[in-house]
Amino acid sequence: MLVAAGCGGSSPPHPAAARGLPPALAQQWAAQASAIAAAAANNQGCRAQRLASTLRDEIIAQQGRVPARLQRPLVTGVNALADRITCTPQPVTVQAKPPKPPPPPHKPGPGGHHDHGDHGDHHGKDK
Predict the structure, then answer these.
(1) In angstroms, rounded to a whole number, what is the distance separating the alpha carbons of residues 33 and 30?
(2) Residue ranges covered by each domain of the chain
(3) pLDDT at 82
(4) Contact 45/88 with Cβ under 8 angstroms?
(5) How much is the pTM?
(6) Which of 16, 46, 56, 117 is spaced 20 to 30 Å from 102 by Cα?
């Protein structure tokens, strides 16, 4: 079993497993399992789950290169690994937009009078 045979652990792979898997695959999967373990240890459960899912997909895709006697234990092991990982998404903090500031108060024009535009003569005379 790859997961139990050294992936993420400190003991060397079981000799039968090492002879059965192509060395490049064994090294690649061991590195991926170590990355999963590191993510889980750093409270990155969602990342660890994604990595475990990727590893499972790669193991399934490479089954033709894996001896038949190891295929089932590999898939079972990576499934068990993925099942032990808990993904708790981090809460997303959404900040509300600050309210739009009110328009500045209208200031009187020259001479202290408010400028109301040209509304004609205020004394009832039309020009």
Answers:
(1) 5
(2) 16-84
(3) 86
(4) yes
(5) 0.55
(6) 117
Check if the beta carbon of residue 74 is closer than 8 Å to that of residue 25. Answer: no
Burial, 40: exposed, middle or buried (Cβ in 10 Å; 0-12, 13-18, 19+)? buried
Cα of 106 vs its chain's centroid, Å: 51
Cβ atoms of residues 33 and 2 within 8 Å: yes
Of 79, 25, 39, the residue nearest 56 (C-alpha): 79
Query: How do residues 48-96 score in pLDDT, each as one tens digit?
Result: 999 999 999 999 899 889 898 998 998 899 889 888 888 887 777 777 7
User: What letter would DSSP give residue 87?
Assistant: -
Alpha carbon 49 to chain centroid distance? 10
Percent of the chain that is helix, strand, coil (3-state, to 5): 50, 0, 50
Alpha-carbon distance 109 to 40, whole Å? 68
Phi and psi angles of residue 81, each rounded to the nearest 5 degrees, phi first:
-60, -50
Joined tokens for residue 93: 């903090």
Q: What is the pLDDT of residues 12-43, one digit of tens each?
A: 544 444 467 889 999 999 999 999 999 999 99
